[in-house]
Write a structure and sequence with these properties.
The chain has helices at about 20-30, 50-55, 80-85, 95-100, 105-120, 130-135, 140-150, 180-195, 215-220, 240-245; strands at about 10, 40-45, 60-65, 90-95, 125-130, 160-165, 205-210, 230. The protein has about 250 residues and is an alpha/beta fold. It has a single domain (about 10-30, about 40-230), classed as TIM Barrel (Alpha-Beta Barrel). Strands 1-2-3-4-5-6-7-8 form an eight-stranded parallel β-barrel, surrounded by six helices. The two termini are about 25 Å apart. The structure holds 2-phosphoglycolic acid (PGA).
Length: about 250
C-alpha cells in the first residue's frame, strides 16, 4: 500500500478540563506550525468547544467527543452534530469504548451517530477495539471486523472519516500492544476498508489509540498503516501532547 496519507495527531480530553485549561489549547495551537507533517486536533469537553475554537484560531482543529443521531429535539442533555459544528467543531469522535461501555452504544447506534456527523459536515472518527478477554480468546480481528462493518456510516470517504483502533485494555492502563500486534490489526482494518469502501479505503486514516505517550509514540507511529494517534491522558498538557505530535515535525 503506497497511498500517501497525511497523519492526524488527535487528543481526546474526555471529561477533563475547565476554562483554565484553555491555555493548553493555546500552547498547542502556537506550536502547531512546527508539526508540519500532520494535522492536529483536540477534542475537549463540549463545554469548552467554543472557547477552544477561539483559542485555536484556525491553527489546529477542534472536535467533539460524541453526538446525538438527531439534529435537534427533545433529548435532554444530548448534543447534536449540528450544535457541535455551530460551536466551532470540525471533527467528532463516535463509538469510543467508554461510550460503548458506559452508555451501551451498539454498532447500530454508533453508525447513526457517524451518519449524523457527516450530515452536519463534520469529519467523524469512528473508534473500534477489543477487550482483554476478547484478545485472550483470539477474537480480536473478528470483533474489530464486526465493529467496522456495523459502524461505518453510509457516505464515508477518506476525507470525512477516520478510524481509530483502540484496544480497550490499552486505554488509560499504560499497556500497549506490541508493534507487531498493532501492525496486524491495522493491516486487517486497511484490508477491510479497501473492501468496504472501494476507491476510498486505501486512503482512510487509521489512528492508533491507547496509552500513547511521548516515550512510545515514535515506535507506534512508525508501524505500517498507522496514520496518527488518538491520545487520551497525555493530551491534557501541551508538553506531553506536543511530545507525541512532534513525531510528525
Ligand atoms: P489514553 O486514552 O491515551 O489515556 O490511554 C486513549 C483514548 O481513550 O482515546
Amino acid at each position: 500500500m503506497t497511498t500517501k496519507i497525511r497523519p492526524l495527531a488527535a487528543g481526546n480530553w474526555k471529561m477533563n478540563g475547565l476554562s483554565a485549561s484553555i491555555g493548553e489549547i493555546k500552547a498547542i495551537a502556537q506550536a502547531a506550525a512546527q508539526i508540519g507533517g500532520a494535522d492536529v486536533l483536540i477534542c475537549p469537553p463540549a463545554t469548552l468547544i467554543a472557547a477552544a475554537t477561539a483559542a485555536a484560531s484556525g491553527r489546529i482543529a477542534i472536535g467533539g467527543q460524541d453526538c446525538h443521531a438527531k439534529a435537534s429535539g427533545a433529548h435532554t442533555g444530548d448534543i447534536s452534530a449540528e450544535q457541535l459544528k455551530d460551536a466551532g467543531a470540525t471533527f467528532v469522535i463516535v463509538g469510543h469504548s467508554e461510550r460503548r461501555a458506559d452508555h451501551g452504544e451498539s454498532d447500530e447506534v454508533v453508525r447513526a451517530k457517524a451518519e449524523a456527523a457527516l450530515r452536519a459536515g463534520l469529519t467523524v472518527i469512528v473508534c473500534v477495539g477489543e477487550t482483554h478477554l476478547q484478545r485472550e480468546a483470539g477474537q480480536t480481528l473478528a470483533v474489530v471486523g464486526g465493529q467496522l462493518s456495523g459502524s461505518l456510516p453510509h457516505g464515508a470517504t477518506a476525507k470525512n472519516m477516520v478510524i481509530a483502533y483502540e484496544p480497550v485494555w490499552a486505554i488509560g492502563t499504560g499497556l500497549t500492544p506490541t508493534p507487531a500486534d498493532v501492525a496486524e490489526v491495522h493491516g486487517f482494518i486497511r484490508h477491510e476498508l479497501v473492501d468496504l469502501m472501494p476507491g476510498e479505503g486505501a486512503a482512510v486514516r487509521i489512528l492508533y489509540g491507547g496509552s500513547v505517550k511521548p516515550s512510545n509514540a515514535a515506535e507506534l507511529m512508525a508501524v505500517e498503516n498507522v496514520n496518527g494517534a488518538l491520545v487520551g491522558g497525555a493530551s491534557l498538557t501541551a508538553k506531553d501532547f506536543l511530545g507525541i505530535a512532534s513525531v510528525y515535525k
